[in-house]
């Protein structure tokens, strides 16, 4: 009995040592990442958040997440609070172009590294920038629209938040793609929150002004989903193509059932993981690639099932 007990104690001690060793090896052990998100009401940002939190936990980090709900002033205050909590690194998705540089300057003044995701700050870029290649993917979407319409008809674009990195890039990409067949965008309007309700309202206004529209481009899936509902309610005689961008879970289902015609699926989970890995490298004093693009895949009814099954 004594021998068995001694073996059991030895085994328990061994497990404790292994556990302690594993904790010591976790690069984020005892460190805190502040995650400042533009708007968690958007599936796209929510998925990046989940990627950061899941991989951060695996690496031993404590992740403190704040949601600006689309308001830049709120985000500045939130990041100042994170800095006061003495976070070790900041993962930052700016809530808008206005005042976006302020949190970066504040973090740098406190010697806190900054990793930007999806949106960068041209005047004060982060130590690393992780993003989807919006120009290339939206150019491909624009060319796909050309193929479907043979370049005939009128296209309108509902933008995201004016001046943000993805809004600028997606405007360029869609415009370049449509230019391959000579199709021009007849109406432009901007949103503040990239949301479905804004997409719905703006699309209704556009269709009332010009019922001959046959292409509606939403620069994000939320916008496109709202626009698709407006198109359905309008009951127009012509075929109207509606496309989005991001590959949000709800939008993927909408592509499968035909509510949306196409989107481009971004690697949201991967971007969250990459952000944590960039933080780990920076905190360890290792070199980190400043510009880290990811692919976004053209997503149609013919290939959407793979993204529904496993989102990248």
UniProtKB/TrEMBL annotation:
GO cellular component terms listed in the entry, alphabetical order: cell envelope
Entry-linked SUPFAM superfamilies: Periplasmic binding protein-like I
Keywords assigned by UniProt, alphabetized: Signal
Pfam families xref list: Peripla_BP_4 (PF13407)
Molecular function terms, GO-annotated: carbohydrate binding
Protein's cellular compartments: Cell envelope
Domain of life: Bacteria
Limits of the Periplasmic binding protein domain: 33-286
Leader sequence segment: 1-24
InterPro entries to which the protein is assigned, alphabetical: Peripla_BP_I, SBP_2_dom
Membership in a protein family: Belongs to the bacterial solute-binding protein 2 family.
Protein name as it appears in the record: Monosaccharide ABC transporter substrate-binding protein, CUT2 family
Originating species: Paracidovorax wautersii
